[in-house]
Amino acid sequence: MTSRGRAVLATLTTLIIVTASLVGMGTVHAKIVLPAGAVIETDEGTVLAAIAAFEKAEQAVKAHDLETVMALYSPQYNYHGLKKDDIRKVWKDLFDEYKEIASTHLFSKITKVGSGSNVVLEITCTGHLWAVSKTSGLYVPIDSWHEEVHYLVFEDGGWRIRGNVGESPRVLPFGTAPHPLF
Q: Which domain holds residue 113?
C-alpha cells in the first residue's frame, strides 16, 4: 500500500471511530483539556482559575443558564465588532434551538502578558461546539476552531473573555471566520 493510501485509510479509520463514538453517546459531555505538552507561561494558580472559568461556563451551557454563561464575557467584550449583547443573542438562540450543548477545548498554550490592571491572559485553543437539535434529534456541529486565541482579562474577581486585542480588521482574511463564543 502506498503512503497516500495509508494516509487515506488512517483518516477514514479515525472518522469511523469518531462517528461511532458520537452515535453511541447517550449525552454530550464537555471537555477542557490541558495536555502534558502545553506551553504554560504563567503561574499554576492563574491556569487553574482560567480553566475553572471555562468549566463554570460549560456547566452553565449544559443547564441553559444564560446569565452564568454571559458572566464569562467582559463588559468590554469586542470580537470583530461583536459586542457582549450580540453574544447574548447568539447564546439565547442556541438555547432555544438545541439541547445537550457541549464543547471541547484543547488548550495548547497559556500566556500571561502585561502586569497589574493591564494583564491579559492569552489561551490558544482548538476545539468544537456541538449539540442535539430539538427539531431533528440529531447531533449537530455548531462551531469549530483551530488555534484560536482567547483573550481574557481579570475583572470582578475572575477571568473574563474580552475578545481580540487591539483593533479588529475591517475585513477578515478569505477562508477565516470569527469564533465569537468560547
A: 28-163
